[in-house]
From TrEMBL:
Cited InterPro entries: A/AMP_deam_AS, AMPD, Metal_Hydrolase
Pathway participation: Purine metabolism; IMP biosynthesis via salvage pathway; IMP from AMP: step 1/1
Record's protein name: AMP deaminase
Function: AMP deaminase plays a critical role in energy metabolism. Catalyzes the deamination of AMP to IMP and plays an important role in the purine nucleotide cycle.
Family according to the record: Belongs to the metallo-dependent hydrolases superfamily. Adenosine and AMP deaminases family.
Cofactor: Zn(2+)
GO biological process: energy homeostasis; IMP salvage
Transmembrane segments: none
Keywords per UniProt: Hydrolase, Metal-binding, Nucleotide metabolism, Zinc
Amino acid sequence: MSNLCGSVDSRPLMSQRSLPVTPVSHKHLPIDLRTSMDGKYKEIAEELLARSLTDSDMRCAPYEFPEESPIEQLEEKRHRLERQISQDVKLEPEILVRAKQDFMKVDSTADLEYLKDSQEDTVDYPFIERETVTEREFQRVSISGEEKCGVPFTDLVDAAKCVVKALFIREKYMSLSLQNFSRTTARCLRELNERPLDTNIYEELHESPVDSDVSVHPPVSKTHPYEEQNLPSDLGYSCAMVDGVFHVYTTQNPKDKSTELDLPYPDLQEYIADMNVMMALIINGPVKSFCYRRLQYLSSKFQMHVLLNEMKELAAQKKVPHRDFYNIRKVDTHIHASSCMNQKHLLRFIKRAMKKYPDEIVHIENGRGQTLMDVFENMNLTAYDLSVDTLDMHADRNTFHRFDKFNSKYNPIGESILREIFIKTDNHIHGKYFGHIVKEVMSDLEESKYQNAELRLSVYGRSMDEWDKLAKWAVTHSVYSDNVRWLVQIPRLFDVYRTKKQLSNFQQMLENIFLPLFEVTINPSSHPQLHLFLQHVVGFDSVDDESKPEHHIFNLDSPSPARWCDDDNPPYSYYLYYMYANMTVLNHLRRRRGFHTFVLRPHCGEAGPIHHLVSGFMLSENISHGLLLRKAPVLQYLYYLAQVGIAMSPLSNNSLFLSYHRNPLPEYLSRGLMVSLSTDDPLQFHFTKEPLMEEYSIATQVWKLSSCDMCELARNSVLMSGFSHKSKSHWLGPDYTKEGPISNDIRRTNVPDIRVAYRYETMCEELHLIIQAVRTQELDSIEEETLCFTSAQSIR
């Protein structure tokens, strides 16, 4: 097996052929990021992954900070004290007295003087300059003195290197797949070098500017989006899957390797190496301590900000005419189409269908057609008998930690045949009833004007024609709204299909999912309805019960998709890697054709092992849930610095995995993570016609959120969403892509500039802290090398 120990032997990301611009691997990083863990990444990662496969006797997981475990705290403090004593002995004997003091209060004098001298040699960062405009003036909390983070300087340098390395990893994978990476973080990383990673394979697409006084309402489509258009021409390319990833060829003969297009995707070996690096980072003691302290500091700083500026933020909101929480844009960033209606809505529709279409054949049973009336007569039910209680689709206390019981709630009256008839796109009536219900939900959104949704539709990968059937359903029934965009979710159910002999191996599932997408991109005329439908699809989701045990560790010894013929399900990271790899190739092909690209936004961190969140951090633009971040301070800090979007659904979590009061959303929000509120499944969890407003209402009452907090969550939801740049420019302001308070238009968002400035300045200070530590260490290394060289010259 190839050596995966750290970055020394890792190779650049590469396709089977050369890339247009080959991204740089870690051994070519612009700065020395070697740490004490180098050479041990593989062993540490595999040990942690092995623990995730079995129940552990440990009081807390190795990636958690033992906040509630006094014994572990004392042990950790003892080890830190011993490390400090040994360090002081090497520096100066008289400092030994300091080792008896409380270690966490101050560092050694030598460390403080060393840091002070180093800071004088470094260039001040220009990006923390504060605005002096009156409207943006507010009370700021500043920390004076040299020591700002409560850990020894040597630990700070080691932790900063690890954090920077992790951010480089994410930037690499986001750039390679043409997904978004935080502008502020990217610019700060470039302070380490002019161009840290050569991953800009394509120049950014420049969107047409929007006037500053443009209406808050984007123009309505004049023509129906599903009307036949002049389809782009056929490129005449062909494609074939190799080791689970599609390759594109410029001729119809995929066997001619010389005609292969240079479309990049991540090399498996480097992905595994990067995964090992990330797994090792999250259990490193000094890194955990550093990240935990920074997160606690961010929470405390926000509380101080609220105490000092809450009235100023409220006053700024009151000055804005017409705008309030009700008429700012909100996006439901995580909602499944099959449960986008509430129980009462579905009940009314079923009763209406029974009266309007009683004799319509809706199901085939044993070769004989059944009408809607026949179906209900077989159940001894009439329209009058039906009620919300009869449907029994609401989650209750019995679904807590019982995902199997929750899935059964999708069946009205407990009958799977009713689920097939009313909330499926692929049935005997071609999803007619489901199309009507979704259009009614869209109509409600359009009536509200300010609410939008990103609905999930399923593609299972059991057959090659699923995409065409889905597109036909959307086009035939005109299921479209300017307030809605689609995501396509891929359920992780290979083991189920394999057991039923529907699939022979995992590669067949990947081909069923991605081959139609490559075909329609190469030749839109081959799937004309799919081409129209994909114009409104923004990304992919990966869904299933994350708490299900995994029996396999994804490494270089894992079977390739063509050889994965077991009845066991591949692990989460296996699914995500091959989805990401194929999406990356597809995105580059679509970019060449001038089509829009897709993003990866999986369910991640709701339950299960922590490596789900590691995969999500590396490969996904946004994630849904993210509950387990509360137990992993290193990952939570990284998600903050990279501003990874997290769509959270507290009411859904309350019924399935985590009680409402324990939900970390208010904690994430106070620390500055990019979080938004979403509904997940209104059919199971909500009661009103406006489930998103219900979600905001309950969160505000329980957690005592301010008007500014609510508007910030709404603004985050728009930023995270897949709606077009033009729509976002209307909703947030034409400068929303810029950094700092200039990006905010309070007339549209109702978020005070004070809050946006606070978030921006706080994040810049955090980035400044870690980058300054890395640069200080780099300068010190250069000085040492210079001294050694000078000494050698003098000896000669």
